[in-house]
Amino acid sequence: MNKIILSVYVVCLFILSNGCVIKEAYLLRADLDGPASQIPIHLTKSLEKDNVSLTLRASGNTQQHIEGNVSRRSRNIYTDSLFAGKNLGWDVSKFSFNFDADFKIGKNFALFGGFGISESLKDAIVDGNIGLGFIGGDSLNAIRFDAGLKYQSMRVRGYYYAEAEFLPFNFDFNFIALVDKEEGYVNPFFSLTYNSTHKDWFVNPFFQIGYVSQDLFNIEVGRDANLLLVNEDIVLKSTISILSFSPGVNIALGENQNLLIGARYFFLMSNDDLDNKNILLPFAQIDFRF
Prior knowledge:
Elements (H helix, E strand, L loop, with lengths): L1 H16 L2 E15 L17 E9 L4 E5 L3 E2 L2 E2 L9 E5 L2 E11 L3 E10 L6 E13 L3 E26 L4 E26 L6 E18 H4 L10 E18 L4 E13 L3 E2 L3 E12 L1
Parallel strand pairs: 1-6
Antiparallel strand pairs: 1-10, 2-7, 2-16, 3-6, 3-15, 4-5, 7-8, 8-9, 9-10, 10-11, 11-12, 12-13, 13-14, 14-16
C-alpha cells in the first residue's frame, strides 16, 4: 500500500514539476459590464481661503451598449479572433453615483479622493480615485490642473481558444476556456478645469477637459484556466483611452453650497474597432464647502 501511495506521489510530482506552454490564444468573445471611467470635477471658489469640499454627483448615460472587434498583437499580447465579426460587447452602466472630498492646502494645492458606485446587470460596481490638484487664477477666474489614479472595477464573461503543449511528453493539445470574473484596474487620469468666480453672479460657467486610460478586461490564458505554466503567459486584453469634454453651469445655492449642472461628452480612443466611440453623460453635482 505504501508503495502505491509513493508511486502516485512521484507521478504527481513529476507532472507538477513540468507544466504547459501556451503557444497561441484567440479571443472568441468578451462581454463586459461596467461604466466608462469618470474623473472628478473640482471647481475653485477662492484662491485665498483654505477649505474642505465634499461633492455628491449623479450621472446618467445615453449610450448603453457598444459592440466592437478586438484585434491586437504586441509581444505576448494576442487578441485576434478566430472568427470574423464582432467579438466584444460592452454593457455600459446606465447611471453612476460618486462622492468626492477635496482638501485645499495653501493657495495653490489640493489633495483629493473619492469613490463611486455604478449600475450593472448584477451587483453594483465600485470605483475610486486619489490625486493632487494645482490651482491658479485671479479674483474673477480660476483654473485647476488635476492628476491622479483611478481604480475601476469591470466584470467580464468571455471565452477563448488556446493552443498549448504539455512539456514532459511534447504533447500538443487545444482547449476552449470560459472566464467569468470581476477585476479592478488602476489607471492614470489628468484634467484641466476652468470656472469663473464672480461673486455677484448667480450662475457661473465652467468647462473641463480630461483624459483617462481604462482597462476593459485582462485575461491571463494559462492562469485563468488553472494551468501550471513554465513560460510567460499570453494575455488577452483591451484598453481604451477616454477624452472628455464637460461644459456646465455653477449655480449658487448659498454661501457654501453650489449646484453644478452639465454634460460630459466622451470620445473613446482605441485600437479596437468599436461601432460607437461617442458617449454623452448628463450630470448634476452638489458641492458643500467647510
